[in-house]
Amino acid sequence: MRTYAIGDIHGQIDMLRRAHAQIDADRKRVDDSDAPIVHLGDLVDRGPDSKGVVQYLMDGISAGENWVVLKGNHDRMFLWFLEEASRADPHLFIGLDWLHYRLGGSETLGSYGVNVNDKRRYGEVHAEARTKVPQEHLDFIGERPTSFSRGELLFVHAGIRPNVSITDQHEDDLVWIREGFLDSNVDHGPLVVHGHTALNYATRYPNRVNLDSSAAYGKSLTAAVFEGRTAMKLTDTGRTEIPVSAVPATLPEKHAFKR
Q1: Which end of the chain is more exposed for a tag (fewer CB within 10 A), N or C?
Q2: How far apart are CA 235 and CA 21, in angstroms?
Q3: Cβ burial 38-63 (10 Å sphere, 16+ → b, else e)
């Protein structure tokens, strides 16, 4: 059973198109046009064109592409900011909100033509954003699932709470978890494919695969192909091994989130 997956996009529309081109090339090589493509969430923030990313994914699904798009924590922060009464995510450090420069909300709103600068009040930005971000984009993001199972694989944005069945997982964990998951050696049953914790390159661990290769910071967006539990990274010239590590990842200091 073949499944494709793409890591955290973060507004990088050109990288996303390139990842899809790599998948299309691989599909032609193996003569398989039906295998789904799973996008691991964090469609928005930090990159230059979050609006374009959301529209691209909406258009593909509307055209009948076999694409699964999961919800990430940045996508949820976007939604919560645009509510009538804006909500801040409790996972942020006290004093931070989605418009803080370390989170990338300003770049997302900028892609929708919203004027975000230090001289404008939070309420002014919020009011303008509610008039300029299309409701269909918010509906699309709000309807995204937080997990997808296929064969021996479980796809989520951030990870899972070990020893808890997928039906009992809390959304906060599925879109936010690090501690308790990254450092766990528990056999989860399925191989967990996730993003959320930015690394220099996609990495395979005994019980999971992290596909977040720091597109948010201008590095790269990983497209991968899974056949059973075998994981391979896609490049412009074909497939290559995903490095294997037995050492749990650590929380990058550049993140502005609670530990």
Answers
A1: C
A2: 10
A3: bbbbbbbbbbbbbbbbbbbbbebeee
Strands, sheet with 67-69, edge to edge from the N-terminal-most edge strand: 67-69, 37-39, 2-6, 223-227, 230-235, 238-241
Q: Using a cut of 0.90, tell me whether the model's pTM lies above it.
A: yes
Q: Could you read off the pLDDT of 216-253 as tens digits, one per residue?
A: 999 999 999 999 999 999 999 999 999 998 765 554 43
Question: What is the distance between the alpha carbons of residues 54 and 136, in angstroms, rounded to a whole number?
Answer: 10
Could you report the per-residue pLDDT of 169-194, keeping only the tens digit for each? Answer: 999 999 999 999 999 999 999 999 99
In terms of Cβ atoms closer than 10 Å to its own Cβ (0-12, 13-18, 19+), residue 257 is middle
Task: Look up the CATH superfamily of 2-241.
Answer: Metallo-dependent phosphatases (3.60.21.10)
The H or E element spanning position 53 is helix 50-62
Strand partners, 4: 37, 225
Provide φ and ψ at 61, rounded to 5°: -65, -40
Cα angle 241, 235, 42 (rounded to 5 degrees) comes to 95
